[in-house]
């Protein structure tokens, strides 16, 4: 278990930048009026947006000398998001990351990491889980 | 919208270019050089620069959120990354074809949507599944 990251404040600008980068024209990601009309407090973020917050937590683990992972040999095995509600602009989020599982199979290391993303009221917003695979040296 | 087992969602075809990768790197803060540096990618044994798996996952997610009237109905989203999407610097890019269908309607008011993503005729995502509330 790693300590929660410094809080991350979700901005309209970052959501729009992310939506542009994934080519998603949905007005709920761009137009605060459209988002409010649909019942959200502000523009909401696309489903995979929290990779922005989670990556920082993953990088902290990847660079943990105790685990000694080789970044250059690492690939992304799988990814999941479980949503309590959509993230919206104005959310102040903190991620608590835990190493859920480490195993070695056929010379490769598999590391499963879970990130619990909570808002300013300490309510769970999203649980993010990623499996990283470090290919063994040939 | 049709949440019955076997119903197909409108498909989506996306061409991914180097410019898209640079833009996604900046937006997602994932600056791993395998996504923009050909020399580095080859050094670690890849054929060329590859797309971020998370970009492919985001593009695949569009097929579901475009179909849902309300993104808050997305309960969970999962995928494995089975093959890389190789993005050459050839002025054309890589074309990825996404399809999805309602695989299972459950008693608890949710449904599982199975998504496929094909590049170069082969699946690049494995077991990609979105669970939605009906």
UniProtKB/TrEMBL annotation, chain A:
Organism: Labedaea rhizosphaerae
GO BP terms, alphabetized: fatty acid biosynthetic process
A Pfam family hit: FAS1_DH_region
Coiled-coil regions listed: none
Gene Ontology MF terms: (3R)-hydroxyacyl-[acyl-carrier-protein] dehydratase activity
Protein name: Acyl dehydratase
Domain FAS1-like dehydratase intervals: 6-127
UniProtKB/TrEMBL annotation, chain B:
Entry-linked InterPro entries: HotDog_dom_sf (IPR029069), MaoC-like_dom (IPR002539)
Domain MaoC-like, chain residue ranges per copy: 12-113
Endpoints of the signal sequence: none
Source species, domain of life: Bacteria
Family membership noted in the UniProt record: Belongs to the enoyl-CoA hydratase/isomerase family.
Name this polypeptide is given: MaoC dehydratase-like protein
UniProt organism field: Labedaea rhizosphaerae
């Amino acid at each position: 278990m790693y300590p929660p990251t410094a809080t991350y404040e979700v901005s309209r600008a970052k959501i729009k930048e992310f939506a542009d980068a994934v080519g998603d024209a949905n007005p709920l990601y761009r137009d605060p009026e459209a988002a409010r009309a649909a019942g959200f407090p502000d523009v909401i973020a696309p489903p995979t947006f929290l990779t922005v917050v989670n990556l920082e937590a993953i990088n902290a683990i990847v660079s943990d000398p105790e685990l000694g992972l080789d970044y250059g040999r690492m690939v992304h095995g799988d990814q999941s998001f479980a949503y309590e509600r959509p993230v919206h602009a104005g959310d102040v989020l903190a991620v608590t990351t835990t190493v859920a599982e480490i195993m070695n199979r056929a010379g490769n290391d598999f590391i499963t990491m879970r990130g619990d993303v909570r808002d300013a009221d300490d309510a769970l917003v999203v649980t993010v889980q990623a499996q990283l695979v470090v290919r063994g040296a040939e | 919208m049709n949440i019955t087992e076997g119903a197909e969602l409108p498909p989506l075809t996306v061409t991914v270019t180097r410019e898209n990768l640079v833009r996604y790197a900046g937006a997602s803060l994932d600056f791993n050089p395998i996504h923009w540096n050909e020399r580095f990618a080859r050094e670690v044994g890849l054929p060329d620069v590859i797309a971020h798996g998370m970009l492919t996952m985001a593009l695949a997610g569009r097929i579901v959120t475009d179909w849902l009237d309300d993104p808050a109905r997305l309960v969970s989203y999962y995928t494995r990354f089975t093959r890389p999407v190789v993005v050459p610097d050839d002025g054309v890019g890589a074309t990825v074809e996404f399809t999805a269908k309602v695989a299972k309607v459950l008693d608890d008011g949710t449904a599982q949507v199975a998504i496929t993503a094909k590049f170069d005729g082969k699946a690049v995502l494995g077991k990609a599944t979105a669970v939605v509330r009906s």
